[in-house]
Structures are given as structure tokens and as C-alpha cells.
């Protein structure tokens, strides 16, 4: 039997920045539930509050009103991966991957073993003692993914992690992430501007409105798991991408 309760629950969640006449309503009101092991992708126009939602889930921001709860037994249930990698230039690849474990005071021998495992899984074992300056963009993002997953988070938060990469590398890392998350079944909230990415990766795709962001539509990609990137070539993929684009186009705000 699976866990009967949602892993993440948001109710009437809002976030406003600033006060008085200059206040900006960035998010909500928004309701959201995410089941244990579910991979949920959020798409929406720029500035709609997607990253704000993720930062509230990570504990980096407080909501203005409403609640967001994570059902967990861990004091640090979430790990976050940013678009700009967020790794430390002065630490080796191994030390970067081990960083979260060091913060949690995991014994060094165990931490090194877990870091080595994730370096192997992400194809970085030969670069354990290299520094980030020697790595390509794709390899840096693999380091960020390995660091987040090494702490075995109950909730993985990903804020456009592949946006800075070229199309070919982005596709490769999408497929790698798909394989990893299907094996681990880590509950994941994933922000992206790429509809293709959302459809390939997500159990659900949630479409957000223009600011203040609300959830205006939900779609479930019709591809069973285990899933591979081959779904990109199917008519169902093309049809869903077109449908999602129609929804997003109505929300787009001219610059």
C-alpha cells in the first residue's frame, strides 16, 4: 500500500512582494496537491510565480497568506536544483556532490561512498577530483543533480535546470533524469518553459496563468511508465504539446 496522504499540499497560497501602492501580487491564490513519488511539471508565462512557488516549498520564502505543507519525517525534506547550477567553484566535483551530506553530518566514509555512487550514476566518476571550471555546462548540471539526489530528498525541486543548455544536451539530460527519477520515484516539482520537457518528464503538467500565478489547467501525458524519450515521436505527444501551447499563448503577456 502506498502512502495515503499527499506529499505536498498547498491551500489558498499567495505571495506578495512589497507593500502599499508598489506591492506586486506574484502568486495565487493557488491550491495544489502532489502525491508521493509523483513528478509534477509547472509551465507558465515568464513572471507568473513558478519560481516563487518552488522557493516557498524549499523554505526559502514565506507565503503571504495560505499554507504549503510537506508531509515528512525529515527536518530537511527538500533539495533544490537551480538553472545556474549552484555548485561551488572552489570545491572539487566530489566535494560538491558530498556537500549536502556534510551539512547533515553524515560520517565521512559513508558520505564519500554515497557521493561516489552518484558520480558513477551520472557519468562523473572520472572527474571526482576535478574542479567545476574544467567541466562543460552539461557536466556541471550533472554535478548539481548528483548533489541533490545524494541526500536522498523526499522532495526534489528543480527550477529550469536545463534552460541554459543547448538543445542536444538538454535532450540527453532529460532522458537521464527520466531514467533516474523513474527508478527512485522521488516526489518532484519541476519548472520549465519547455513543453516538450514537461510532457517527457511529467506524470502531470500544470499550466499557470499570468501573474499572479494560479493553476488554470492540468494535463496527464498519456504515456505509461517506465517511459523513454521515444514518446517524443508519437502523435499523442504532438497533440498534447499543441494543446498546451494554445493554453499558454492565451496567458502570454507582451513584453
Automatic annotation (TrEMBL):
Keyword Transport tagged: yes
Signal peptide: none
EC numbers: 3.6.3.-
Molecular function GO terms recorded: ATP binding; ATP hydrolysis activity
Listed name of the protein: Bicarbonate transport ATP-binding protein CmpD
Gene3D superfamilies per record: P-loop containing nucleotide triphosphate hydrolases
Domain ABC transporter: 8-235
Keywords: ATP-binding, Hydrolase, Nucleotide-binding, Transport
Amino acid at each position: 500500500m502506498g502512502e495515503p496522504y499527499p506529499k505536498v499540499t498547498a491551500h489558498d497560497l499567495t505571495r506578495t512582494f512589497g507593500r502599499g501602492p508598489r506591492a506586486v501580487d506574484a502568486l495565487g491564490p493557488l491550491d495544489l496537491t502532489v502525491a508521493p513519488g509523483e513528478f509534477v511539471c509547472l509551465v507558465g508565462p515568464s513572471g507568473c510565480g513558478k519560481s516563487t512557488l518552488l522557493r516557498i516549498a524549499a523554505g526559502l520564502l514565506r507565503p503571504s497568506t495560505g499554507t504549503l505543507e510537506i508531509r515528512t519525517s525529515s527536518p530537511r525534506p527538500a533539495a533544490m536544483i537551480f538553472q545556474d547550477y549552484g555548485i561551488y567553484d572552489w570545491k572539487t566535483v566530489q566535494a560538491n556532490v558530498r556537500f549536502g551530506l556534510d551539512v547533515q553530518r553524515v560520517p565521512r566514509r559513508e558520505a564519500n561512498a554515497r557521493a561516489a555512487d552518484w558520480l558513477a550514476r551520472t557519468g562523473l566518476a572520472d572527474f571526482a577530483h576535478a574542479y567545476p571550471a574544467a567541466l562543460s555546462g552539461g557536466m556541471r548540471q550533472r554535478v548539481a543533480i548528483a548533489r541533490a539526489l545524494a541526500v536522498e530528498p523526499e522532495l526534489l525541486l528543480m527550477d529550469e535546470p536545463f534552460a541554459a543548455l543547448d538543445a542536444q544536451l538538454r535532450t540527453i539530460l532529460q532522458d537521464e533524469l527520466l531514467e533516474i527519477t523513474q527508478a527512485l520515484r522521488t516526489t518532484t516539482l519541476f519548472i520549465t518553459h519547455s513543453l516538450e520537457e514537461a510532457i517527457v518528464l511529467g506524470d502531470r503538467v500544470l499550466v499557470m496563468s499570468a501573474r499572479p500565478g494560479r493553476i488554470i489547467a492540468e494535463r496527464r501525458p498519456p504515456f505509461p511508465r517506465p517511459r523513454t524519450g521515444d514518446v517524443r515521436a508519437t502523435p499523442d505527444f504532438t497533440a498534447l504539446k499543441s494543446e498546451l501551447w494554445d493554453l499558454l499563448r492565451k496567458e502570454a503577456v507582451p513584453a
